[in-house]
Write a structure and sequence with these properties.
The chain has 233 residues and is an alpha/beta fold. 36% of the residues lie in helices and 9% in strands. It has one domain: Uracil-DNA Glycosylase, subunit E (3-Layer(aba) Sandwich), CATH 3.40.470. The chain contains six helices and four strands. Strand 3, helix 6 (193-199) and strand 4 (209-213) form a beta-alpha-beta unit. The longest helix has 23 residues, at 161-183. The two termini are 26 Å apart.
Length: 233
């Protein structure tokens, strides 16, 4: 589903004049497969993030065992990939597999839940809790999309602002917006004010509610933080 959009968008990003080494398409495709695995049957709310974490091609050779039917079996640095942050299920060791606990907190907020997905030292229970949380998001019609189909930060190296905007806008126009228009969600919540500032003008044709929240790891006082808790998803 939507693989044609993904391929066309990746080709257009390749054709941009940018100073950034792109991930292999195999990585981008695997991220897409994980995203489609957790797509709700009826999407009510889209959480719109920046991008997944850059993954080198060698990492795709690492596999995991996850107790889910038809779940992709290769590793990538993406929150929908349950082995990202859960090294005990991998068949080979990998460095810096901390995952993104801040997004698991955000997912908990999206369902107003208390799933034990962070600071849980029982690894088996933590994995099961993550699965249950993603299933609850799926049931409620909450889905994570990324503005960029490619990992933005290549091994921690930040692209120039010009390159950054080119990548986001190319992904947005050719991949994200066609999908959003087809799905017609009620709400689209952008994660991060800087991303929102880039994409909001392109989303004016969207008839649902469009808003933004702070990045979950943003350094800001609690009383000034915009979070999902105020949206009543």
């Amino acid at each position: 589903m939507y693989l044609d959009l993904l391929e066309e968008t990746y080709q257009k990003i390749q054709n941009l004049s940018i100073n950034l080494e792109l991930e292999a398409f195999e990585v981008v495709k695997l991220v897409h497969e994980y995203r489609m695995y957790w797509k709700p049957e009826k999407v009510n709310t889209i959480l719109f993030a920046e991008s997944h974490v850059f993954t080198d091609l060698d990492s795709l050779n690492i596999k995991h065992k996850i107790p889910l039917n038809d779940y992709p079996e290769n590793y990538t640095r993406f929150v929908y990939c349950l082995s990202y942050g859960e090294s005990q299920v991998l068949d080979k060791p990998i460095s810096n597999n901390k995952g993104t606990p801040q997004f698991w907190k955000l997912f908990n907020e999206s369902v107003q839940g208390n799933f034990r997905v962070v600071n849980n030292f029982d690894k088996s229970d933590k994995l099961n809790q993550k699965i249950q949380l993603l299933q609850e998001m799926q049931r409620l019609g909450i889905w994570l999309m990324d503005c960029s189909i490619v990992g933005i930060y290549n091994r921690g190296e930040k692209p120039s602002l010009t390159d950054y905007k080119q990548i986001l806008n190319t992904s947005l126009q050719n991949y994200c917006i066609p999908i959003i228009k087809e799905l017609k969600p009620k709400k689209l919540i952008v994660i991060g004010k800087s991303v929102f500032d880039i994409v909001h003008s392109e989303l004016k044709s969207f008839r649902g509610e469009v808003d933004w929240i702070h990045q979950p790891n943003a350094m800001i006082k609690a009383e000034k933080r915009k979070t999902l808790l105020s949206f009543g998803l």
